[in-house]
Amino acid sequence: MTDATPLSTATATGHKMSARGVNVFYGDKQAIRDVSIDVDMDHVTAFIGPSGCGKSTFLRTLNRMNDTIASARVTGDIMLDGEDIYSSAMDVVQLRARVGMVFQKPNPFPKSIYENVAYGPRIHGLAASKVALDGIVEGSLRRAGLWDEVKDRLSDSGTALSGGQQQRLCIARAIAVDPEVILMDEPCSALDPIATAKIEELIHELRGRYAIVIVTHNMQQAARVSQKTAFFHLGQLVEYGDTDNIFTAPKQERTKDYITGRYG
Amino acid sequence: MNVFALLFVVVGLGLIGWLTARARAVRFDRGGQKRLHSLPSQHGWYVAMWTVLPALLFVAAWTALSPALIRDQVLKAPAAAQLSDFAFERDTILGEARDVALGRADSTFDPTADALVAPMREAIAFYGWTGTAIAILLAFAGGAFAFSRISPAFRARTRVERGLMLILLVASLIAILTTIGIFLSLFWESIRFFAMVPPQDFLFSTHWSPQLIDPNNPGKSLGAVPLFWGTFFIGAVIAMLVAIPFGLMSAIYLTQYAAPRVRAWMKPMLEILAGVPTVVYGYFAALTVAPAVRDLAVHLGMPFASAESALAAGLVMGVMIIPFVSSLADDSIAAVPTAMRDGSLAMGATNSETISRVLLPAALPGVVAGVLLAVSRAIGETMIVVMAASGAANITLNPFESATTVTKQIVDLLTGESEFDSPKTLAAFALGLTLFVITLLLNIVALRVVKKYREAYE
Amino acid sequence: MSKRAAPAPAPERTPTDWKGAAMQKRIRRRYAAERRFKLFGMLAVILSAAFLAFLIATMVANGARGFTRSEVALDLDFPKMGLAVDRTHLSTPGADLALSGAGLQDKVEIAAESGGDHSLAANSAWITVRDAIKADPSILGGKRTIWVPASTALEMGARGEGTAAAQADASRLRSAGKLRTGFNWGFFTASNSNDPVAVGIWGALKGSLLTMLVTFLIAFPVGVLAAIYLEEYAPKNRWTDLIEVSINNLAAVPSIIFGLLGLAVFLGTWQIGGHSFGPLLPRSAAVVGGLTLALMIMPVIVIASRNAIKGVPPSIRDAALGIGASRIQVVFHHVLPLAMPGILTGTIIGMARALGETAPLLLIGMRAFIVTAPQGFTDPATVLPVQIFLWSDEVSRGFVEKTSAAIIVLLVFLLAMNGLAIYLRNKFETRW
């Protein structure tokens, strides 16, 4: 299936995250079939594909958010720095701190802006003092490009912000726990074009520090923000490779059909 | 004639009206000249409505009015001349005569009433048959009028629907009428009470002993503060100390942790707990819990502990409220969008951290409203305190001592044999008014909070 | 693939050491807190369930015996007893009076005491004898053995409890074939009595039945019609808001307030146009109780019915309107039948609440001592919960088990009603 990038265990260990032969079942229904893929630091990896193709489902296996669905079952190996994240030795709480997630719809907690960002560091005990916590909050908000807009109203409710600001707040919240990978599940689908542009800009800036995986239904967006692109269809990974190649010279017929808009 | 029999006859006439009108309308149709605006059965309904409704309205009015007419007629009888002018005494005697005349009692207490039995019986029969005759006449007249109007062109359906709409409107107005009725009846009796007892005595004085009322200064022994305190202490403190943690934690466990199978068994269990009648809780409190609590108190070094402690009543009341708190907390937690929960879990929070730091704060308005409703229900709860709490009005902070509540006193005041106009009886209505106003306020605040909270997530 | 490089360190933060000892310790603490939290939740549920189980077990343990009763065979020699009674009276309604006037009660007691210095038969044994005489006056002509309820002491003895003397009596009588224990049918056919051995719940049960009938006949139509109006036709204005607010508040008004309402409105003294006249309705009657409870549960029915009506999808209304049905026809032909399961569920739950209600009925005087079951809606009556309350106040030991037995009967009724409601809810849950 995945013929774009040659895969071998030797190279797999060098990747930030790598998945091998992953299947996901919801009850009797198989949502993901035999997906193998690598995610690297300093890269933005985009998952594209028609809706219902399983790209979001696969994304949620990367930080075990599928655990919250009782009927979901995952087989295959997913490694984070060479460690199997589904092994009993891996602690799901720590995993999710290291692999952060930003959701489709902005979901700030109904707390103040400050508390939203401070939530992660507090539960994980990342700040030794109030001053350190203030530093983390400020740093995260700055990196999320939100600091200048909210620095005078940190005690306002996070839900009072505009949609785009809420989404950047959620990104700041994810950054605050100092993750290694950030998963973004269609982060701009609920936003207007200006807010979308800001988020894309932010993704560019964040790329240097994290491995970023973004699910998008918008091919232009994938082309703009990502270095690697994976095309999913009917629960399978059809093609994975450098974004430029996927969009200019897809190897698979199905990829070409999708990109040229024949279906999807 | 018996009112029920009369109703039966009227409804029967309505049915006959329906059948004849429909039969006639069917024959219109057979003429085939014109298309009917309405179906035959709708013509039937039109006639039935005109037959039944005026007669029913008359019966209702007559039932309310005829006692006064009967009474006037009886008072005109020669035997009534020797009746006392004092209204209360006169009414009592008339009441006795009526009971005998109706066969509710075998004999009268007062010999003067004996002489009135015959005139009373006569008057009852006279007005009874008059009413019956008028009702049946009205039914016939209404039916005939309606029957004369139906014709192929007659818009029976529109008329019937208009009538039906009116009935619907009246049905929905009954809720308002009940509210007004409650308020007025409580308010009216309370006004009479406060004419005898100064409001400041009732509301702020701390001595309550309705058994020993000084007729010259009834306010001295009708200070309701100990009752208010007891109600608050049992219903809003002790009961809530049980109900809130248990209700909240079981809601959390059942919604967030329990396997579907466990939930499928445990939720009906809580519903059963909610469906147990209060008299059963009261019996259980008095039979089992109260003696245990007293033994505990004796163990703790309180040899004269009351067997009717505030604690026993409050504990059982708390258990009774658990399902109520649980179901309201369940609703409020379920109303928090799953995105919140996912957001927190995706940050690496554990389940309990997610619940206590994100879900509960987000659901807090709903939970608070639920607690307010639970308090309102606890302070209005009657049977548990009637059966397990004491009648002694104490202001105490010791849960092993006895305390009494507003509801218990209402029952005690109204179930003894005493006349209707005494300050003692009327005090029950003043207590009722206080209880009504407080629970109403709690409900209004709670419903408003819930509404605001729902809007926040919609 | 040339872009791969070492992760750029965040300038102002050192990467978190997730494997470090401090972090591991913290994680362990967090998981311990998690387990504790879950345990509290489980405990809350288990303790609630345990309370319910304990309550039911207590009632069953106390009440099971209320359903059995021991009877003792009483040898009566009627001619010797010297009952001065005119036999022609015995088939008339005056029979009861004639027999008690002839001193039947004392004479039966004397006969029952013949075995020892304490009575073996219950105080109410003479009533059994009386009924036997009424059924067949010819028995007065000779000797006859009649099974009568055993006294409380003997009853205890028959169970192996109570005093040693009573136990000895019981075993002596049993071996003589003069004591038998069986199902207490009388509990379901008799009414109230001063003697715990003779009490039954029939009077209260019938009172409950009559009261519930009145409640249903009023609350159901009015509640459903009000719900239809509010959900389908009411204009959105302040009046409608007022109606909604009153319904929501009425649903939360303490039940005892409805008792005060019933007392003041139905049983109070009215002043109209200078005339003052007494109660509209007789005190203690099922019709007053039924009306009062109807007002109480109407909001429950309205709210449930509105939800059920709201649950019918608008597409069904559109379809009916589209083929030319009037708005009334749409509701009565299409919406109402589809909403009926939900409406019935709500109604059953409301009726169950009314059936278990006590406080308001105490205030309107439905606590009468009912020896014969009420014959109509205006007869003095009591209801099952009030009967339980009245028995619970009795000091006699025998009443404890009768109270618990009555509670079991009440709980069975309520469970059946709630079970039916849950069944309806599950069976008819959303067919679209």
- Architecture of the domain at 9-107 and 177-259 in chain A, according to CATH? 3-Layer(aba) Sandwich
For the record, the CATH architecture of the largest domain in chain B stands as Orthogonal Bundle
The overall number of domains of chain B is 2
* Uncertain regions spanning at least 5 consecutive residues of chain B: none
Largest sheet of chain B: none
Span between termini of chain A:
20 Å
What is the gist of this entry?
Chain B has helices at residues 3-31, 40-76, 87-101, 111-149, 156-196, 199-204, 225-257, 260-275, 278-299, 310-335, 338-346, 351-380, 383-388, 406-415, 423-456.
What does this structure look like?
Chain C: Belongs to the binding-protein-dependent transport system permease family. CysTW subfamily. Chain C: InterPro entries: DUF3333, MetI-like, MetI-like_sf, Phosphate_PstA. The complex is a heterotrimer of chains A (264), B (458) and C (432). With 264 residues, chain A is of the alpha/beta class. Chain A has a domain at 9-107 and 177-259: 3-Layer(aba) Sandwich (Rossmann fold). Chain A contains eleven helices and ten strands. In chain A, the strands form two sheets. In chain A, strands 6-7-8-3-9-10 form a six-stranded mixed beta sheet, sandwiched between helices. A four-stranded antiparallel beta sheet of chain A has the order 2-1-4-5, covered by helices on one side. In chain A, a hairpin with a 2-residue loop joins strand 1 (17-26) and strand 2. Chain B is mainly α and 458 residues long. Chain B has two domains: 3-154, no CATH class; 218-456, MetI-like (MetI-like fold). In chain B, 77% of the residues lie in helices and 0% in strands. Chain B has 15 helices and no strands. The radius of gyration of chain B is 31 Å and the shape is flat. In chain B, 48% of the residues are buried. The model of chain B has no long low-confidence stretch (mean pLDDT 86). Chain C is mainly alpha-helical and 432 residues long. Chain C folds into two domains: 73-189, no CATH class; 202-268 and 278-427, MetI-like fold (Orthogonal Bundle). In chain C, strand 4 (270-272) and strand 5 form a beta hairpin. In chain C, helix 4 packs across helix 5, helix 13 (314-322) packs antiparallel against helix 14 and helix 16 packs antiparallel against helix 17 (397-427). Classes of the chains: A alpha/beta (264), B mainly alpha (458), C mainly alpha (432). Chains in contact: A-B, A-C, B-C.
